[in-house]
Specification:
Layout (H helix, E strand, L loop, with lengths): L1 H16 L12 H5 L4 H12 L2 H53 L1 H20 L4 H18 L2 E7 L3 E3 L2 E13 H12 L5 E13 L4 E14 L7
Antiparallel strand pairs: 1-3, 2-3, 3-5, 4-5
Helix pairs in contact: 6-7
Length: 233
């Protein structure tokens, strides 16, 4: 009888220790499989769960510290990058400010240089005949040939070549004369108030005698015309 009572008592104790079952079966969805941890991680968590409360608290505190340090480093890196960009902007602004101050300190010199350049430009422009003055210049070239004692056999003006505010005016020349007369003609061209350049010169001997040598010269005299209109003085 005593043995039967002991067995009955043990059975009742086991029933009491059995956990209550859940109110009802719960179906597992797709999310339950996704939430399963890696076996190695699960094993480490199980080992941590078996540790004393003080040890678990220490591990939790260490994790909090690590997270805080990582967050701080991340924020510090971003702030440091922003400070670097701001420093670069500051240096660029300081450089521009120095340039402005330098210009302001030398404004009088700059104004004087501008005035000087304007005077030079006016001088050059005055050497460029406008459309009306081109005919006068052509007459001056013809007169220079007469004064030098050379014979101008042909004198033809070619099409102009536009370059912004000025145009090239090429003039094909063919003339004859002795060496000294031709040299004087070129010298008179250089002395004209308007710019006249002599280029593409081809010299041949037209007549060679004991008295003198007559040369035949073909070339292009190039003058320049102001394209800005005819209102210039």
């Amino acid at each position: 009888m005593n043995r039967k009572r002991m067995k009955t008592t043990r059975r009742r104790a086991r029933r009491r220790r059995r956990p209550r079952s859940a109110p009802g079966p719960r179906s597992r969805g797709r999310g339950d499989d996704d939430m399963e941890l890696n076996p190695a991680v699960q094993k480490q968590l199980d080992q941590i769960a078996k540790l004393p409360a003080a040890a678990r608290a220490g591990i939790a505190g260490a994790l909090v510290v690590l997270i805080a340090v990582g967050y701080y480093l991340m924020m510090w890196q971003g702030a440091n990058q922003q400070l670097t960009q701001m420093r670069a902007q500051e240096l660029e602004l300081q450089r521009k400010l120095s340039e402005v101050r330098s210009i302001a300190a030398n404004i009088n010199e700059f104004e004087a240089e501008i005035d000087n350049l304007e005077l030079k430009l006016q001088k050059v422009v005055r050497q460029l005949p406008n459309k009306k003055e081109i005919e006068v210049l052509l007459t001056d070239i013809s007169n220079a040939g007469k004064m030098a004692g050379v014979e101008i056999k042909s004198f033809s003006r070619r099409a102009e070549i536009i370059h912004g505010f000025y145009a090239e005016v090429p003039i094909d020349l063919t003339l004859t004369g002795n060496y000294h007369n031709i040299a004087r003609f070129f010298d008179l061209l250089a002395g004209l108030p308007r710019i006249v350049n002599m280029g593409s010169v081809n010299v041949t001997v037209a007549k060679d005698s004991m008295e003198e040598t007559i040369l035949n010269v073909k070339g292009t005299a190039t003058t320049f015309r102001f394209v800005g209109g005819d209102k210039r003085a």
